[in-house]
Amino acid sequence: MAIHEFQRLCWRNIEMLCPAEWEMTFSSSPADTPRIILSDRRYERLKMQWRQLSYTPELSRVIEKHQDEVEHVTILNSLPEGWYGTIAPCGSGSVIHAGKFFSKTKMLVELILFWNKQREKHIEEKIMESIHPVSSSVQSCLWEAMGMKVKIPSECTLSAFNAEAGQILWKFMYGDKKSKKEVIICRIALLRAIFPQPDISWEDLKAFIESQANPRKSRIARAESSTYNGHTAVRIVWLTIPDGMIKRLTGYKNKIVEVAWACPVEEKIYRLSIPFEDCHVLSEKLHVKCCGDRWKSTLYDKEQKGK
């Protein structure tokens, strides 16, 4: 059955469209070359990797060599502009290898598409036409994957991520080598298992967030009612014990601002943590979308027009 609904995927300086039924089931470590796998409920559908090159590859020669070395391979001559690829039988279906070099960003994108039965050319074309690298010179980057949508300044780079049952967590780093700072964004499922009551107050959210903290490493300095994307939220200022023996011995404590809110539409809890000293600057640049189609600010609930 053909899939007609598509969703946007934005991950590590690549934006693309893919069928709404496909999910990202694998991503390489932030320290490694970007690689992802998209799967539906039964099969792996797409493998893709991208990297910057210092030269312009001759993709036409690459696929000709691939055809010479592998049996039953046919070169595809009707792919979207700039794409080179081959098709070969695979079981009862076929497998497509394709690549494109984006000269402006010097980015090579390579992908493998798997069709277990009939080849669906309109999906291939939609995916390939939509793929484009994001320039490192932009002021903010859009991250959209694993059910989360985030706009974040481009100087913030992904340092770690975790996708486990019931929770998605992304960590971003920014600053120079001597003073690295961290932004943490978390999405927690099973809202009604945590809060069965119909109305969730900011005090309820505070109690839940506090129950997740390690009292030996952090304590709440201040907590107050807030809103986020129109939802009830709690704004917490944490005092945390920093890394480093000297700072611990001198009693130095980091200040972290966290905003947590419950989205009853998605039935999810969101948590956002940023350094206290940068909260006013980042509040105008860092945005997390839950339900709805409008971006709003993180800390002070100011609307941001556009998607």
What distinguishing features does this structure have?
307 residues; mainly beta; Protein Transport Mog1p, Chain A; 7-stranded antiparallel sheet; 22 strands; 15% helix; 47% strand
Structural summary, described in words:
There is one protein chain. The protein is mainly beta. Helices cover 15% and strands 47% of the residues. It is built from six helices and 22 strands. The chain has helices spanning 59-69, 121-130, 191-194, 202-212, 245-249, 279-282, and strands at 6-11, 14-19, 23-27, 35-39, 44-52, 74-76, 84-90, 93-102, 107-115, 132-133, 140-145, 148-153, 157-164, 167-174, 181-188, 218-228, 231-240, 254-263, 268-275, 287-289, 295-296, 303-304. A hairpin with a 2-residue loop joins strand 1 and strand 2 (14-19). The protein starts with 5 loop residues before the first strand and ends with a strand.
SSE blueprint:
Elements: E1 6-11, E2 14-19, E3 23-27, E4 35-39, E5 44-52, H1 59-69, E6 74-76, E7 84-90, E8 93-102, E9 107-115, H2 121-130, E10 132-133, E11 140-145, E12 148-153, E13 157-164, E14 167-174, E15 181-188, H3 191-194, H4 202-212, E16 218-228, E17 231-240, H5 245-249, E18 254-263, E19 268-275, H6 279-282, E20 287-289, E21 295-296, E22 303-304
Antiparallel strand pairs: 1-2, 2-10, 3-4, 4-5, 5-9, 6-7, 7-8, 8-9, 11-12, 12-20, 13-14, 14-15, 15-19, 16-17, 17-18, 18-19, 21-22
